[in-house]
Amino acid sequence: MYRKLLGATLFIIAGTAGAQQETMKECAAIEDSLERLVCYDNLAKRQQGEPQDEKAKGRAKAEEMKARGQSKAEEMKAKAKQRGKRSDNAAEQNFGMEHKGSQNNTLERLEVEVASKKQDPYKKWQIELTNGQVWKQIDSRGYFSWDDDDTYYIERGALNSFFFGREDSNRRLRVQRIK
Fold first, then answer.
1. How are the residues of the chain apportioned to helix, strand and coil, as percentages rounded to the nearest 5?
2. Are residues 153 and 125 in the same domain?
3. Rounded to the nearest 5°, which phi and psi values hold at 104?
4. N or C: which end of the chain has fewer CB within 10 A?
5. Region Disordered: what ranges (predicted)?
């Protein structure tokens, strides 16, 4: 009698484990990492609840979780696209001000026109651009040559630093945006 009961219990447990294996294989087959993660999360939530005895129910739930994962992934991708859509003019205006807000900018280099430049008593340059931005020199380099005919640029450096330079020169100034 105990053998029959034990055999029936093992058969039920084996059937449940087989259904879970099938569901895990279906989750593993999902190519998109976000969809796969959502499928695994849904599988874990389901395992914490009541166990399923039938393979058909397991497969149906796996398909449902896969569909939920795909819709959630599509929703997240749509939100990411909306955040990524900013005009180039806005990116240009925010260049150098990322550290003062939570805006994320992908612009690495900006060609600029100098409206005016002046040196403070410590011989550091303050540069006003035609687009209204004001940058100040923060390193201690002494000499920087200016030529009205050359093209100037500001480029991103490491650790939220910026450099002001001229196309035909190897010298650059480390600068910080103040306005």
1. 45, 20, 35
2. yes
3. -110, 120
4. N
5. 46-107
User: How many separate domains does the chain show?
Assistant: 2
Q: What is the pLDDT of residues 149-160, one digit of tens each?
A: 788 999 988 888
Asked whether 162 and 155 are in contact (CB, 8 A), the reply is yes
pLDDT digits (tens, 9 = 90+) for 67-96: 777 787 788 777 766 665 544 566 777 777
**Host H or E run for residue 80:** helix 55-84
Element (H, E) at 34: helix 33-48
Q: Which helix (H) or strand (E) holds 41?
A: helix 33-48
Residue 32 lies in domain: 2-84
Query: Of 84, 119, 145, which residue is a domain's last?
Result: 84
**84, 110, 139: which is the final residue of a domain?**
84
Say yes or no: 94 and 170 in one domain: yes
| Contact in structure between 39 and 66 (CB atoms under 8 Å) | yes
Q: How many other CB atoms are found less than 10 A from the CB of residue 179?
A: 12
Tokens standing for 26? 């279906």
Express each pLDDT in 100-146 by its tens digit: 665 555 688 889 988 998 988 888 889 999 889 999 989 877 777 88
Of the two residues 47 and 156, the one the predictor is more confident about is 156
Q: Does 64 lie in the same domain as 23?
A: yes
